[in-house]
Amino acid sequence: MDPSSTRNIGKYASLALLLPISTGIGYLMGHGLDLLFHTSWLQYIFLALGTVSGFISLIRELDKEK
Length: 66
Hints:
Largest sheet: none
Structural class: mainly alpha
Order of helices and strands: HH
Helix content: over 70%
Low-confidence stretches: none
Oligomer: single chain
Shape: elongated
Number of helices: 2
Mean pLDDT: 92
């Protein structure tokens, strides 16, 4: 296996994890703020923000390759 294919495997593996991780972090931040402020709706807003952030980051990374 040559080094360039190993580098591509790592790059695409990180792209595959980018969206779920950003969504999870957004949810956890919202959940923590819900516990802090005694609300129940911030987790959904931060879940959406994390998902949108993940899609934007994914599109930017894929656009770099062109």
